[in-house]
Records
---
Amino acid sequence: MTSTFEALLPSTERALFHRIAVAQSEGRAPSFVAGVAREGDRVWFGARSCVDGHAPDAETQYRIGSITKVFTAVLVMRLRDEGLIALDDPLEKHLEGTGVGEVTIAQLLGHSAGLAAETPSPWWERTPGAARPELADVLGERPMLHPVGRVHHYSNPGYTLLGSLVEAVRGVSWEEALRTEVLEPLGLDRTTARPVAPHAGGWAVHPWADVMMPEPAEDLGLMAPAGQLWSTVGDLCRFGAFLAEGDDRVLCRASVEEMRVPAVPPAAGDGQGGYGLGIQLLRSGERTLIGHTGSLPGFVACLWVSVEDGLAAVALANATSGPLTSVVAADLVRIVAEAEPRIPEPWRPLPAAEVDEEFLALTGPWYWGTYAYGLRIGAGRGVVLEPLRGTGRRARFRPLPEGGWIGLDGYYQGETLRVVRRPDGSVSHLDLGSFVFTREPYEQGDAVPGGVDEAGWRGL
């Protein structure tokens, strides 16, 4: 994305710095780093440290835990886009012998496969991956806890299966596929499977005293696709821009938008959250955020993106139970969005090639029964259908090669809108998934299902 924005205002920068200073102090973190990107460009970085005169910079690595899952999901979506897998495929079709092969790839991505949240003992985050050399060691004797596809139940082993799926289909390691297919094309040179200096050390801070001890940094082995990666504020800001807009070198915009669609209803009691295909969703005030949280012993991390505001925020700390980075990152987005709201692009007419008289004649009011809707032209010969009064089913549509349009959101997502013509070529009505839209409400002679009363409109 190209940015026309200048640096943030000094007052905004102070509010951002104050937020992370409070987080580091109250969260008792050895260090805390954060950054904000606007329209794809990093516009602010801040750091606090317990060491006087020394603070990490935007290229200092921290372990990012489950943010790793988003990278794994991107690899899986690439396989889908290349036609090598389908999201509805059972796992067994591509990865045999797991014992849970009836679950689908989509269910694994969205944590609705019914799998357990964790591996059998010992605690996988604090023990070497060599302790779980086979998938059977990751899944254990009772891998399924819930009905398949019915509920959201977060599962770390599920992402081990997805990493193994990538390896089975690609014929290379998960780490190599990630490096060549995602990290290198996006220029994420400081995102690695093992720490590369400069990097922060992971610490546990005593809950009742201001003392601390180092945490182990284990290689997670088969569990790596669930939480192995190390990254930086700089790299994660760039990755946030990718999650907002896509990048055809890695994953097109339509596919990253698909990842943001809720896969199943949120778990009971999780009224503000949700989960797409490898992406967490958060409703924060009036704002919808996408991204992921992460933690491993010694580290907490968060990346939140507000697509509507064109903002991404990263918060990283090196303490096991340190600051609530999820809250801080959401606050950083809010601070910038409220202090310096996004400036809209100037209005411009559509290119001449996208508009003709026949297309233009379709615009204006249409009636579904007596409900009034308006049809207007969007970019790329797309259209928008929206109610003219009150609330109703608004949707955007993109054109289909064979004619007509397909719905992109809301009730009509995936439904086909087409123009139905009379024998003489004139427009009779619009058909939207069998719903008929006419130019007048219940006009005599129109193609209204069930017909129109011959006596027409009347008073009492």
---
Amino acid sequence: MKEKIIRVCDAKIASKGGNVGLSFYAFFANKNDDPELLMEVAHWWIMEMKLDHFEKAEKIRNLVSAM
């Protein structure tokens, strides 16, 4: 999941610039095909990191890269 988050952040930054924001839903398909992983990422985003619904892609990339 870490590599996917970094890949998605890099793609968003490349296409929309350094100020682009995203939510944790950006890392998942529109189908709910892996609810356990979705909940794990949502818990990390909301409960552990105390992030807002939308955060800068650069911030998320840096957080995940440091893990």
